[in-house]
Design goal:
Elements: H1 4-12, H2 21-29, E1 34-37, H3 46-54, E2 58-62, H4 66-78, E3 83-86, H5 92-104, E4 109-112, H6 120-127, E5 131-136, H7 157-162, E6 168-172, H8 177-186, E7 193-196, E8 204-210, H9 214-221, E9 229-232, H10 236-248, E10 253-256, H11 262-273, E11 279-282, E12 297-300, H12 307-314, E13 324-330, H13 332-344, H14 349-362, E14 374-377, H15 379-386, H16 390-402, E15 406-408, E16 416-420, H17 424-433, H18 435-447, E17 456-458, H19 460-467, H20 471-483, E18 487-490, E19 496-500, H21 507-510, H22 514-536, H23 542-549, H24 562-571, H25 573-588, H26 594-600, H27 605-617, E20 621-623, E21 629-631
Parallel strand pairs: 1-6, 1-7, 2-4, 2-5, 3-4, 5-6, 8-13, 9-11, 9-12, 10-11, 12-13
Antiparallel strand pairs: 14-19, 15-19, 16-17, 16-18, 20-21
C-alpha cells in the first residue's frame, strides 16, 4: 500500500505536505471522525482526497456550490482519478444515467449537493455503495449560527444513518468557536479529532479606510490597471454601476452576480482567471471555490454582514504568498445601512408567527393540513396583500426555512429584469406601430429610470396595477418586445415556490421555535456589531483583531495592516528608509520574490513586507507576472 506522501507526489506532484495536512490524513486513515479547520488556500481538499484514494471504497463529498464541485471533479479527472458530480442542474434521465454509473463504475469520488441528498432515489443508491469516507466541504454551512447556513445541510446525517461505521471529515475555512461546536454537534461526530490551522496570513495587509469618495479611493488603490483584483459590492446593481464607472476611468473590469445566466458567469470567470480582465466586481455569489493564486487586492466597497464572510472573502488575496492587500472602504452611510439591513429588519418570534399565519391564509391551507404541498409564490404580491415590509417578510421567510417549517426554492428573491436595447426614439416608434405594447411600454419607461442603460429589476405585479392590465397581458407584451429585440428580458412569473414541511398548526408550530428565533437574532446583532467594532478600532493591529474573533491569540502585531503602518510611520521613519534602501539595492541585481527579500535581509519579515507595500504604493517597485518584485 502506498503512503499518503507517495500519493501526493504521484497525483499532485508535491513532495511535502502543507501544515496539518499529514496529521489530518492520518486521523481519517485511522477511521476517526475529523474536523479540519484550515484557512482559505490551506489545501483542504487534499485532506479527504488522499484518504479517499488509499481507502477501499467510494468517498461521498457533500459540497454547497456547483462550480466548486465541477472544478474539483475536473481536476481529479485530469489526474486520472474516477470522479463525478450529481448536481441540481441534471435532468431526471441524466441522474438515472449517473446512478447507473455509480452502481457499476467503481468511482473513487462522488460529489453531491445537500439538496440532492434529500432525494430518496439518491439515498437508495448510496445505501448500496461500499463507502469508505464521507467528506463535508464548507462544513460550517450545517451550523445555523454559521455565516453560510444551508438548511439542507442538516440532512447530511442521513449518511451516518445509512453508513454508521464510515468516518466523517468536516472541512471549513471559517468558524468561530461557537460555530465549530455547533458544527460538531449537528454532524453527529463522535469524539472527533479537531485540527485547527493558524488563520494568520503574514502576507496580507488588512486595511480599513474611511472615505466619502470611494471611486477616487479605488482609482488610487488600483493604479496598476493589470493587477488581479476582486471588488465586493452588496447588490447586483452596484456591481454593474461600479464596473461601468471604473471602465470609464480606463480600468479593465467585468461584473459577476447571481442573476447572470450560467454561460455568462463561466465566460466572465474564465476571462478573469486567464488575466484577460484583471478586475472582477462581484457580489458574494463570487465566492467558494474561486481559486486564483495571484490576486493582489480584495476590496470590500460596502460593509460585509459579518467578520466571517469578510475574512473568507479577504482570504482570496495573496494565495501565492506574495504581498497582497485586503481593503475595506466605508463611510457613515454604510454604517447606518448595515444596521438597517441586518438588525432593524430582524423578525422576532411574534413577527415570524404572523408571517406564518398569513402564508397559510394566502394559500388557503386548513388547520392540520398542507404538509409536503408545494405552491408557486409571488413574494411582492404577498407583501402587498398583508402590508408587510419587504425586508422583514424576507427575513421572516428565511427564518421559517432555516427552522425547517417550510422550504423556499432556490429562485427565491428573483425578479424579472428588463433593459431596452434600442434608442428611445426607436422604442416610441415601436409603441406607435404596436398599440398593445404602448401603455405597458411607456409605463415601464416612467417607472424605471435607467432602463435604457442598465438591466433593471421590474415588479410585474406593480406594472399590472399601474396599467390596469392583467399580469398575463404584461407578460405577453414583454415577451413580444423581447422577440422583436426591443428589450432584453429575464422573466420570472413568480418569485419562487414554497413547500410546507409540517402541517398547519399556527401556535403549536411557531411557539416551540421562539427561543431559537430570539437566539439567532441576538447572534446576528452581535455579528453586525463585531463588524462595526472592527471598523472603529484603529488602535489594535487588524490581524490581531481578526484572529481574536476566531479564537486565536497572536504573538505580535502583523506590521503591515493600516493600524501597524500608521504606528510605523510615526515612530520608525529612519528604519523604513534603511529597509527601503536595502530592498532597492537588492532589486538592482534583478527581480526577487518576497521570500528571497526576507531571506536576504536581516530585518524582521513584517517590517520588510511593510516597506515593500510602501514602495509599491509609491511606484518605486512593481510586481511582475512571476510574482517577483523589480524596480519600476
Amino acid at each position: 500500500m502506498k503512503t499518503p506522501l507517495q500519493v501526493l507526489e504521484q497525483h499532485w506532484g508535491h513532495t511535502r505536505f502543507r501544515p496539518l495536512q499529514e496529521e489530518i490524513i492520518e486521523s481519517v486513515m485511522n477511521g476517526r471522525d475529523t474536523i479540519a479547520l484550515l484557512p482559505t488556500g490551506g489545501g483542504k481538499s487534499v485532506c479527504f482526497q488522499i484518504p479517499g484514494l488509499l481507502l477501499e471504497g467510494t468517498t461521498i463529498v457533500i459540497s454547497p456550490l456547483v462550480a466548486l464541485m465541477n472544478d474539483q471533479v475536473a481536476q481529479l479527472q485530469q489526474r486520472n482519478i474516477k470522479a463525478m458530480a450529481i448536481t441540481g442542474s441534471l435532468s431526471g434521465l441524466e441522474v438515472d444515467r449517473q446512478l447507473d454509473n455509480i452502481r457499476y463504475g467503481n468511482y473513487d469520488f462522488i460529489y453531491l449537493s445537500p439538496e440532492r441528498l434529500q432525494q430518496e432515489v439518491i439515498q437508495q443508491a448510496l445505501k448500496q455503495l461500499p463507502l469508505c469516507l464521507i467528506a463535508v466541504d464548507e462544513a460550517h454551512c450545517i451550523s445555523q449560527w454559521g455565516n453560510d447556513f444551508r438548511p439542507a445541510y442538516r440532512n447530511i446525517t442521513l449518511l451516518r444513518e445509512l453508513h454508521p461505521l464510515v468516518p466523517i471529515i468536516g472541512l471549513t475555512a471559517t468558524a468561530t468557536p461557537d460555530v465549530l461546536e455547533d458544527t460538531i454537534s449537528a454532524l453527529h461526530l463522535e469524539t472527533p479529532a479537531v485540527f485547527k490551522g493558524s488563520f494568520f496570513r503574514s502576507n496580507i495587509a488588512y486595511k480599513v479606510f474611511y472615505t466619502e469618495d470611494k471611486i477616487h479611493q479605488l482609482e488610487r488603490l488600483l493604479q496598476k490597471k493589470d493587477t488581479p483584483a476582486i471588488l465586493y459590492a452588496r447588490s447586483r446593481k452596484q456591481t454593474v454601476e461600479l464596473s461601468q464607472q471604473l471602465n470609464t476611468l480606463g480600468f479593465n473590469t467585468t461584473f459577476y452576480h447571481g442573476g447572470l445566466p450560467t454561460d455568462q458567469k463561466k465566460q466572465r470567470l474564465a476571462a478573469w482567471l486567464e488575466d484577460r480582465i484583471p478586475i472582477m466586481i462581484a457580489t458574494n455569489a463570487f465566492g467558494m471555490g474561486i481559486d486564483k493564486a495571484d490576486v493582489r487586492y480584495v476590496v470590500h466597497v460596502q460593509l460585509p454582514e459579518s467578520l466571517e464572510s469578510y475574512f473568507q472573502e479577504a482570504g482570496r488575496a495573496g494565495r501565492n504568498g506574495a504581498f497582497a492587500e485586503a481593503i475595506l472602504l466605508y463611510n457613515n452611510f454604510d454604517e447606518s445601512l448595515v444596521s438597517k439591513q441586518f438588525i432593524d429588519s430582524l423578525p422576532d418570534a411574534k413577527d415570524v408567527k404572523k408571517i406564518y399565519q398569513k402564508l397559510n391564509a394566502y394559500f388557503r391551507i386548513p388547520y392540520g393540513e398542507g404538509m409536503h404541498i408545494t405552491h408557486p409564490f409571488n413574494f411582492n404580491d404577498f407583501c402587498e396583500t398583508y402590508s408587510f415590509p419587504f425586508l422583514l417578510a424576507y427575513n421572516g421567510l428565511q427564518s421559517l426555512d432555516r427552522l425547517g417549517v417550510l422550504q423556499l426554492s432556490k429562485e427565491f428573491g428573483r425578479t424579472s429584469i428588463v433593459r431596452f436595447v434600442v434608442a428611445s426614439e426607436r422604442a416610441i416608434g415601436y409603441f406607435q406601430e404596436h398599440r398593445n405594447a404602448s401603455l405597458i411600454g411607456k409605463t415601464l419607461l416612467r417607472m424605471y429610470g435607467g432602463i435604457f442603460e442598465l438591466p433593471t429589476k421590474i415588479n410585474v405585479g406593480l406594472v399590472a396595477k399601474k396599467t390596469g392590465q392583467p399580469i398575463s397581458a404584461i407578460i405577453a407584451v414583454l415577451e413580444q418586445m423581447a422577440t422583436h429585440e426591443i428589450i432584453e428580458l429575464e422573466l420570472y412569473t413568480t418569485d419562487a415556490s414554497i413547500t410546507f414541511l409540517v402541517p398547519r398548526e399556527d401556535e403549536r408550530t411557531i411557539n416551540p421555535l421562539a427561543k431559537e428565533i430570539n437566539l439567532h437574532n441576538r447572534r446576528k446583532v452581535a455579528q453586525v456589531h463585531s463588524v462595526l467594532n472592527y471598523l472603529k478600532n484603529d488602535n489594535i493591529c487588524r490581524s490581531i483583531q481578526l484572529l481574536h474573533y476566531f479564537g486565536e491569540e497572536a504573538e505580535e502585531p502583523c506590521g503591515i495592516c493600516s493600524v501597524c503602518a500608521r504606528e510605523k510611520s510615526r515612530a520608525g521613519s529612519g528604519e523604513v528608509r534603511l529597509i527601503a534602501e536595502a530592498i532597492l539595492h537588492l532589486l538592482e541585481e534583478g527581480p526577487k520574490s518576497s521570500r528571497q527579500l526576507t531571506e536576504s535581509l536581516t530585518f524582521a519579515e513584517a517590517k520588510i513586507l511593510h516597506v515593500v507595500s510602501l514602495l509599491l504604493e509609491s511606484n518605486k517597485i512593481e510586481l511582475n507576472l512571476r510574482n517577483q518584485y523589480s524596480l519600476s
